[in-house]
Write a structure and sequence with these properties.
heterodimer; A: 295 residues; mainly alpha; MetI-like fold; B: mainly alpha; 12 helices
Amino acid sequence: MTSSPTRSTGRRQRGALLWNGLSLPGAILLIVVFVAPIVYLVLASFGTSDILGRPTFANGFTLRNFENAFADYNLPLVLRTVAYAGIATILCIVLGYSVAYFAARFGGRFGLAIIALVLVPWLVDYLVRIYGWRTIAVDNGLVNSVLGGLGLGPVHLLGTPGMVILGLVYGYLPLMVLPIYASLGQLNPEVIDAGKDLYGNPWSTFWHVTFPLTREGVVGGVLLVFLPILGDFATAQFLGGPDTTMIGNVISDQFISAGSQPLGAAMTTVLIVGLLAAIAFASLAGRRRNAAAVI
Amino acid sequence: MAPGSRRRQRAGAPVFLWVIVVAVMVLLYAPILVVAVYSFNGADSLVQLNGWSLQWYGQVFQDEQIRSSFAQSLQIAAISSVVSTVLGTAMAIGLRHATPWLRRLGGGSVLIRLISPETATAVALFLLLGLVQIPLSFVTVLIGHVALSLAFVVVIVRSRLVAIGPDIEDAAMDLGATPAKAVWLAVVPLLAPSILVSALLSFILSFGNFVTSFFLTGIGTTPLPLWIYSSLRFGVSPVVNALGMIMLALMIVVALVAALLLRWNSRRRS
């Protein structure tokens, strides 16, 4: 048997051309389409903008874009974005964990069907669903006609922070349910029963046994929800107002309308660095060193 | 503790859990229900309902712009689904035995893709295309979609490969197969379900994609989500409701076909 590893290594070396050839096209595509552009984006954030707003290095490299990105008038924007993303993520954890736990522990043979029910809305175009929310929440919309029928005053929903956060929770909740459901599936029910014998109270059992054992699923869900929300711009654009702008809106304005692309690049760079910090924090919070593996 | 009491403990979910689950389902389906109801609205209103009518569906099929957007979205979704599934499956199979530097490079770029927000990767590609002066077009949208789905395909196929174990190629080669034959005859058939799921997911992701298309599209290319975006910006129209329902029907058909194929595949194996 001692010769077996060398034998198979020899075979693999003979197939090396095949293995490398199979992986190369995809790897090249990812590097050209994702890695190289991000490298250039970081570079462009140190440039200045020409007449059309495009990055140029004719005037050398500057830190001004970062100074502008961190200027006092941008601070509320950053804080607001992080706050919205944080609140939406916490709500997603509470709601997503409940649904996943319900499906895994009480769903029985309908467990997967419950998860499918969470996923089906994804098949409806995101903007169409946002549009559905507008129909519900607009000043003369469904909510207010129901309230009016009850003799209650009209409430202003569109453009409020609450509406944007609702839209974010709505859009990203399935991404929280999936990893938590997966980690609950790996949980041995006997462990929970043992926990009940130890602690008795269902809440302490949950806090001391179930939740810690599914922490990886939660961390994976947080990465899948919190990170994309930081870059989201469609939700705030259609459900928010002038006071609920998020970083994503300001970034997309720099590129689509005639803004300053280097400023947009700098803000995106800040976003990416923030994400890396969040991931590093998450991998500390998760038990495994490589928390990204949860994805 | 008696076995009986343990069974009782498992019997039902606490009331508050029921409340949350029902509330989540209402939250998830409320806007879709609204869109569905209003798509049959007889009145030209986003608020009042007045009788039933199929007028908005009629308008969807008559509108030249919607039809061309629909065709473009279908083409982009179909091509990017095939290309990303082929490239991603090959990449996942190859990376297992590729030289270490390539394995790190490939795995690393998949990871970078998965953790970067779509807005960031899309504006970055937008910038680079500007630098090398490639005009935005159908092709740039397509490339963006392929690369977007590719990472998901690699993850899905790789998780299946991990479950299969690394010895299957070795076993086939021990029986005299060349490496290429080992992959084609031993590995790929075992991957069939995850390849199908990958293709389905890529199709759905591409068909509904908004962010990447938003930054990478050029004049003359308007995938459906972008058409919906502009119609939401410039005066809303009930046509969007009907269009949303038609897109949903198409996605359900795609998902059902995939489910049937999966079932057929597992029957054939057993």
